[in-house]
Amino acid sequence: MAAKAITRLANRASIFSPLPRRCFTSSSEVNSHAPPFPPREDLTKRCVQWVFLGCPGVGKGTYASRLSNLLAVPHVATGDLVRDELASSGPLSSQLSEIVKHGQLVSDEIIISLLSERLVAGEAKGELGFILDGFPRTIKQAEILEGVTDIDLVINLKLREDVLLEKCLGRRICNQCGGNFNVASIDIKAENGSPGIVMAPLLPPANCMSKLITRSDDTESVVKERLRIYNEMTQPVEEFYRRRGKLLEFNLPGGIPESWPKLLQALNLDDYEDKRSAAA
Ligand code: AMP
């Protein structure tokens, strides 16, 4: 990368640095089996800086958005920032459209610029903490993020690749309310020691039914390319966080009804949800 671009990246990255370290500190005993969770009594003060990793279609958006509601921190999805930029027909949109259409990654420079703008705008509104979804996707992005702020925890969602493809092909979005749905009905039997997996469709309410659209990059050939790019560019990011003791591996056992309670349990948040519902 040209020196000028690096300077601009570094300048952009420095926008992260005013973000004060507001959340709990990682424990020194952290490893991939015992991620850096705070003791339960700290949960009311929790203001997390978390990252979701995982292949396209695994459900990062679904679980990040649920956790963001539960913990009252913003869910920041870089894919959404890219789609907003595309929809705005701004100066970057024709360049981005070609990249996204082919399942390629947007340059680190552009994505950092979009993300810094989003975080700075959020900070101006008083937002604290974040759950990042879809960032970092390259080692360079991970290094920049690590250099400017302290990520508490990285949740790596996992599903087998044939299920990922079916889920991407079944994904539908309501073009009015923005809700995410899925028409795929997955029922894979256990075989050769691998567990079966059942995921019921996540159907929209009647008023969204006629407004459903499919993402232009959710076609079979583009999903396969996105999976290939994930394995090449993003899988090393898993190792980057594993080495730092920040990675929580989570194999999704099925659809939302089975996975959500187990994820909360893995995050030590099961009690937290009960208390929140009781207080509501
Ligand atoms: P997603 O909704 O996360 O699947 O992202 C949609 C598209 O946005 C991706 O296929 C990329 O083209 C682009 N994108 C999102 N996040 C990043 C990132 N961190 N780095 C590069 N490109 C990204």
UniProtKB/TrEMBL annotation:
EC number: 2.7.4.3
SUBUNIT field: Monomer.
One family name in Pfam for this protein: ADK
UniProt similarity note: Belongs to the adenylate kinase family.
InterPro entries linked: Adenyl_kin_sub (IPR006259), Adenylat/UMP-CMP_kin (IPR000850), Adenylat_kinase_CS (IPR033690), P-loop_NTPase (IPR027417)
A single MF term (Gene Ontology): AMP kinase activity
Keywords assigned: Kinase, Nucleotide-binding, Transferase
Catalytic activity: AMP + ATP = 2 ADP
UniProt name for this protein: adenylate kinase
